[in-house]
Amino acid sequence: MVLPQIKNICCIGAGYVGGPTMSVIADKCPYLSVNVVDINAQRIQDWNSSNLEDLPIYEPGLDKKIEKCRNINLHFSVEIEKHISNADIVFISVNTPTKTKGIGAGKASDLKWVEACARQVSKFASGHTIVVEKSTLPVKTAEVIKKILEDAELNSQNKSKTTFDVLSNPEFLSEGSAIEDLEHPDRVLIGGENIEAINVLSEIYLNWVPKEKILHTNIWSSELAKLTANAFLAQRISSINSISAICEATGADVREVARAIGSDSRIGSKFLDSGPGFGGSCFKKDILNLVYLCEYFGLPEVAKFWEEVIALNKWHQHRISKLIVKTLFGTVTGKKISILGFAFKANTNDTRESAAITICKDLIEEGAVLSIHDPKVDTCQIEKDLGIKSSVNSEDPLTDKTFDSKGVWNYAKTTDESLSGSDASIILTEWKEYENIDWLKAKKIMRSPSWIFDARSIVNTNEVKNAGLNLWRIGDGSQI
Ligand code: UDX
Ligand code: ADP
Predict the structure, then answer these.
(1) Residues of the domain holding 375
(2) Model confidence over 2-39: pLDDT tens digits?
(3) To test the ligand 2 pocket, which listed residue (113, 145, 148, 348) has its Cβ within 8 A of the most ligand atoms?
(4) Residues lining ligand 2, Cβ inside 6 A
(5) Residue 297: count of CB within 10 angstroms of its CB
(6) 206 and 337, same structural domain?
(7) What is the pTM of this model?
(8) Which of 163, 421, 455 has the alpha carbon at shortest distance from 316?
(9) Are residues 187 and 276 in the same domain?
(10) Residues 184, 123 share a domain
(11) Per-residue pLDDT tens digits for 379-417
(12) What's 108's domain CATH number?
């Protein structure tokens, strides 16, 4: 039964978390008015675009939700004050990047956006408001929010009384499957002190999530559980990637090892695909947060343990760049290399912390001419990530007199364009369309001898080999 007072929701932050999460809440709870606000007017304009192709983020199934609910009970707006003031529940879903300077630089999260939100809520909220931390935040952030809000409570004694509850409700969605994850979550975690407020938030989820999947904890456990989940998942990727290196050195096959260990129900089979190294906005940031907390609380050994997960990930990415250079006769200077995939994983246009960034930078540093293709990432984003403008397409850099052996990159609109004239192709994102490449045709348009480096284990190995192409696969020791 829905508590009668909950009518209006305001979500501050229209990003990768706020947008999809609120779209699903609006869809599942038609009786609620869901208002997503952001300081970024362009982003809001994109969310309101009549052309669903222009939505600021790409997620399978998101466009359908937007089409169904937008301007009915789901609104995207820059009117932050108005929607905070009307809201019964305010979700804080703003970005929390790693601090670049000051205390904790390089590790701690920069909470200035969260603090700014808390201050806005304290200023504009009216009546009783439940404030929900949705962004992944370091443990004890709720305390900061609470302090700011408690101050507002005290100062509101003279005007109409304003009161707050603070809850932690971390989001576990994965990009690329955000809508599916939100509709069928493994669990919904709600941490807080006031059981009534917890129940109010639970009622929203109960519209589509079974009761036994809604977990109640104290607020700090909830905050720490989110960091821990991401740290464990990242650690699993670094573990299997470390094993891929041993496989390559010894003649084992990482896919077989993963299948063998994954059959142990205690280990489980998910999240054991060796790849080019984990990316995404959360894993590295959350581990760094954990490391910072450990150091802060005087636990250097624990900090070191988790830091290694990130170090291994970086090492693994550079390892791949190095072996590509080594395989291509020790030099890639002036060679055209096709890069297939730039997003940190398939089904998203997000490139944050993508392994492709490190690997492409390494190869450009070595003088390669990269031809980068990704079905969802555009030229501007790649320019931002690499910090280098795209060059004019140079068909044959080795005979091009103007070529000065400095690495460059350009954007390929199709996989054929990327493959044409290249010495090697590196598959870095597991996009479905790369599974279906016609390798016989590729062989004809690439420069011989040609190599395919499959860092995602998605190609049909027989088709590639039968086409006369050399194949390297991550963690495949049969290549030695
Ligand atoms: C992650 C968590 O999964 C999610 O619960 C949390 O809310 C946010 O962080 P996300 O970053 O969207 O989600 O992507 P995820 O699917 O976890 O993948 C992270 C990285 O690990 C990607 O680069 C992916 O390619 C890589 N990965 C994942 C592997 O290399 N192998 C695997 O088996 C799984
Ligand atoms: P996430 O992946 O956590 O969703 P994003 O960077 O995709 O992070 O989105 C966060 C959004 O929060 C951005 O669109 C940003 O403009 C918005 N934002 C940050 N601070 C504020 C604020 N004080 N008020 C409103 N919106 C904010």
Answers:
(1) 219-480
(2) 444 789 999 999 999 999 999 999 999 999 999 999 99
(3) 113
(4) 12-18, 37-40, 43, 80, 93-95, 113, 116-117, 135, 281
(5) 11
(6) no
(7) 0.92
(8) 455
(9) no
(10) yes
(11) 999 999 999 999 875 555 555 555 567 899 999 999 999
(12) 3.40.50.720
